[in-house]
């Protein structure tokens, strides 16, 4: 897209940037609403490029004194918060005719969502110091979701207010008074009332959205977390839901903060606008700053309560994590106690095995020391064997049976005494094992009961 005669090159370059980042649609869908004296509204919806350009040419050739006192262009998103439902050529023509500042278009076409354009109020003057027009623009939360961008200009020569509204529905502006309500009288009041009503609509929408999450939070607060390990999946689902509620409430708080900043900006702008347009207001006109201050107090109230709900949601999340951690700690403590009992049992077994091992080593050493000598002495010193020959030849003593009997008796006696002395210390009885198992089961049951009581106290 190239700049043509009468078009600001900087403006053309800015719109070209929007083309490069895909902020424009291939077709236009623009609604034009005009308010004429006395409060006659004409609405022309869904302008395409061709009809819009013809209408813009008519607007360009208007002369001061026209019956139209408010003109509004409503441009929705073709793709939410990404692509405008207007072509770059049509937007360039609109911006050229109503002389939109480049600063507003830069903020509008900024691709990075988190980069917020500032609020602006400018009064261009002629060479004699007189006001040519008034430019007011800002970004605000939209009652339909996302962000709305508003640009308002007032032509001092034509006494004409033109609004360029992105992501704003025509019915949100409430362009005429309700029956029984006093019609606006001054130009400044007429200009600012539109913004006051739009801010009020946004506040109502934010309150309604926050109220829905408040209901979900209260429903969750009336339910208790279960200490039963089988309910772990349900608790996890509830934590996820609470996180979503807290996240949405956090977004709501930030939206209230944005609206709060906008109203403060409009309060400051209202005094400047009144002094510029109506330095001597007629009797009976209202002070827009008073109405904005009232609206600001409502925003403060809503923001305080939504912040309270957000904090309560965070408290519920922290409580759930604390109880989950407490349960894990109790389980780990129980495992540690069981491991300690297992260690005690293993230590007892190891001690008994060590005693058996000691006894065996003692017996082995005694055997190694005395058995060879004893065997040799016994073999060669007994008289049971007689190697001398007599008349009957070689023979064995008749007392050998006594030797065998005494030997067997003494051996049995030694084993019996040793068994009686060391059996209670060296043998792990089945009864002892059953006793340890019963103590372990009792410990596990008592530990589970204590854990449930502790969790119920925290909930």
Number of helical runs? 10
Largest sheet: 7 strands, mixed
Q: Which percent range fits the helix content?
A: 55-70%
Indicate the CATH architecture of the domain at 1-176.
2-Layer Sandwich
Task: Show unreliable segments.
Answer: 176-184
In terms of structural class, how would the helical and strand content be classed? alpha+beta
For the CA atoms, what is the radius of gyration? Answer: 48 Å
**Number of beta-strand segments:** 11
Rounded mean pLDDT is 77
Looking at the structure, the CATH topology of the domain at 1-176 is Beta Polymerase, domain 2
Q: Determine the CATH superfamily of the domain at 1-176.
A: CorA soluble domain-like
Overall geometry comes to rod-shaped
What's the helix-strand series? Answer: HEEHEEEHHEEEEHHHHEEHH
What amount of the residues lies in strands? 5-15%
Q: What is the first-to-last residue Cα distance?
A: 65 Å
CATH class descriptor name of the domain at 1-176 = Alpha Beta
Strand order of the largest sheet: 2-1-3-9-8-7-6
Transmembrane segments: 362-380, 400-421
Keywords: Membrane, Transmembrane, Transmembrane helix
Protein name: Cora-domain-containing protein
């Amino acid at each position: 897209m190239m700049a043509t005669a009468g078009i600001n090159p900087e403006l053309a370059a800015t719109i070209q940037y929007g083309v490069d980042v895909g902020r424009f649609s291939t077709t236009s869908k623009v609604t034009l609403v005009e308010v004429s004296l006395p409060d006659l509204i004409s609405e022309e919806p869904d302008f395409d490029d061709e009809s819009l350009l013809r209408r813009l040419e008519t607007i360009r050739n208007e002369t001061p004194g026209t019956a139209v006192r408010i003109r509004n262009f409503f441009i929705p998103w073709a793709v939410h918060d990404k692509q405008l439902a207007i072509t770059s050529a049509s937007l360039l023509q609109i911006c050229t005719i109503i002389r939109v500042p480049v600063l507003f278009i830069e903020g509008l076409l900024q691709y990075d969502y988190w980069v917020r354009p500032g609020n602006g109020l400018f009064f261009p003057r002629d060479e004699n110091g007189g006001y040519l027009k008034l430019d007011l623009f800002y970004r605000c939360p939209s009652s339909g979701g996302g962000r709305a961008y508003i640009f308002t200009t007032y032509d001092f020569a034509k006494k004409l207010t033109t609004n360029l509204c992105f992501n704003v529905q025509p019915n949100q502006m409430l362009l005429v008074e309700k029956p029984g309500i006093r019609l606006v009288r001054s130009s400044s009041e007429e200009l600012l009332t539109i913004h006051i009503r739009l801010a009020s609509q946004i506040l109502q929408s934010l309150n309604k959205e926050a109220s829905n999450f408040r209901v979900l939070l209260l429903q969750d607060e009336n339910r208790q977390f279960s200490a039963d390990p089988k309910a772990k999946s349900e608790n996890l689902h509830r934590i996820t839901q609470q996180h979503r509620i807290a996240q949405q409430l956090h977004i709501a708080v930030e939206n209230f903060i944005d609206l709060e900043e906008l109203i403060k900006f409009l309060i400051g702008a209202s005094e400047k606008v009144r002094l510029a347009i109506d330095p001597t207001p007629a009797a009976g006109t209202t002070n827009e700053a008073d109405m904005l201050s009232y609206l600001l107090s409502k925003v403060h109230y809503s923001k305080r309560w939504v912040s309270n709900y957000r904090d309560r949601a965070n408290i519920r999340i922290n409580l759930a994590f604390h109880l989950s951690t407490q349960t894990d700690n109790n389980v780990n403590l129980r495992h540690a106690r069981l491991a300690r009992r297992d260690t005690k049992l293993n230590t007892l077994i190891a001690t008994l095995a060590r005693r058996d091992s000691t006894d065996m080593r003692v017996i082995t050493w005694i055997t190694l020391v005395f058995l060879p000598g004893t065997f040799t002495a016994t073999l060669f010193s007994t008289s049971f064997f007689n190697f001398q020959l007599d008349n009957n030849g070689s023979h064995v003593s008749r007392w050998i049976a006594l030797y065998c009997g005494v030997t067997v008796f003494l051996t049995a006696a030694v084993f019996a005494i040793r068994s009686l002395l060391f059996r209670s210390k060296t043998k792990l009885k089945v009864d002892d094992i059953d006793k340890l198992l019963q103590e372990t089961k009792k410990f596990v049951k008592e530990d589970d009961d204590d854990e449930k009581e502790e969790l119920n106290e925290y909930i």
